[in-house]
Amino acid sequence: MNKTGKIILIIIIILAIGLIGYVSTLSPQGGEKEIVKIGVIMPLTGGQANLGQSAKNAVLLAQEKLGKTKFNYQVIFEDDALDQKLTSNAANKLINLDKVNALISFTSGSGNVITPLATDNKVIHICVASDPNIAKGDYNFLHWTTPAEEDRVWIEEAIKRGIKKVATIQFNQQGQYALLDDLKKQIQGKDIEIVDSQFANTGNRDFRAMIEKAKSKNPEAIFIGFFSPELEVFAKQYKELGVNIPLTTIESFEYTEQPELFEGRWYVQSAQAADEFSQNFQTKFNDNPKLGSPFVFDAFNLIVSAFEKADEVNNEKAMKELSQIKDFPSAVGKIFVGDEGIVWSQAVVREIRDGKPVTIK
Question: How far is 220 from 227, CA to CA, in rounded Å?
């Protein structure tokens, strides 16, 4: 072989070795794990930024505690400030540009925007919210204590406290509608009635007329359903008007950073965070986990479990594995995925005592 032929042969060998090395980085057997991309859409700014930041920390905690896995799990955070236009932009970016395998979202408004996108693109979607419509389609799942469970516990507690007439004032929002619709069904045949129902839009800063109307119906409790900052505005106007009818809710009292506004008020809350999760969160971030954080922690772990069981980075196979998860040890106790893609957990009764939420039942 002449000198030119030897040089060509050496070049071919070098290129072949380089190609083999490159291919090995793409293969799980080559030493580098395949990557599962998880997009997380949270309100990292705006009125509920405290919840969104806490939820983000829950994902970081879950990622840190993964242990040995078959795949690497990359997380991409996006902020939607609970603005549905921003939710749509974030979801499209994560699906079409980042090519995520799964999405985690927060609240019913955001979840309803993402559901059809997840279905069309065959991307797993777990939403921490209460509207069951979000779970429509094979790829969509809902992880939150269901409206039916929360309403059941609220009705049981209201009856024990002798409440027979209640007025409701809530947001025009899918999750609030889901709660109220189920509440109306469950009180049928029971000694309790809704004497007035009113709805307010986000951005409303004057609730006085609504409060006076509800008061005129002589209810024994007024059930509210708001986020911050409307929640605090409502509470202050309620106090200014001198209304002494007890306030109650499902969840809303934990949306606020001013719980002292609701001192002594009882309410129903989604499943309580397990002690181990709360302690780990406190140790890591020097803060208590906010509403929804344990469910977001679970959502990440449920996605990981599904892909690990699927044994390959395949969205369809992982979706089928996720659908079959039972008795999953989670941050809110044992949970399971129901037939309609809804993750089931148990509600609790809480009360604001000394400015802090306390579980009483």
Answer: 23
User: Rounded to the nearest 5 degrees, what angle is found at the Cα of 99, between the Cα atoms of 94 and 103?
Assistant: 50
| pLDDT single digits (tens) 177-211 | 888 999 999 999 999 999 999 999 989 999 999 99
CB 242 within 8 A of CB 60: no
Residue 28 in contact with residue 70, Cβ under 8 Å? yes
Question: How many whole angstroms separate alpha carbon 17 and alpha carbon 169?
Answer: 70
Cβ atoms of 201 and 172 within 8 Å: the answer is yes
Residue 263 tokens, joined = 């001192």
Give every CB contact of residue 93 below 8 A, 6+ residues apart in sequence. 78
Dihedral sign of CA atoms 161, 166, 168, 174 in order = positive
79: β partners: 42
Domain spans of the chain, in order of start: 35-144+273-345, 147-269
- Tell me which amino acid residue 172 is: N
Tell me, what DSSP letter sits at residue 77?
E
With CA atoms as reference, report the closest residue to 316 among 71, 124, 130, 174: 124
* Euclidean distance between CA atoms 66 and 125, whole angstroms: 20
- Considering the domain 35-144+273-345 in this protein, what is its CATH number? 3.40.50.2300
pLDDT value at residue 179: 86
CA distance 311 to 317: 9
Predicted pLDDT at 72: 97
Residue segments in the chain with a per-residue pLDDT below the cut of 50: 13-30
Report residue 10: phi and psi, to 5°.
-65, -40
Q: Helices 108-121 and 84-96 sit at what angle, rounded to 10 degrees? A: 30
Tell the CATH superfamily of the 147-269 domain.
Response regulator (3.40.50.2300)
- 3 state DSSP class of 172: coil
Q: What are phi and psi of 325, to 5 degrees?
A: -70, 130
Measured between alpha carbons, how far is 113 from 46 in angstroms, rounded to an integer?
18
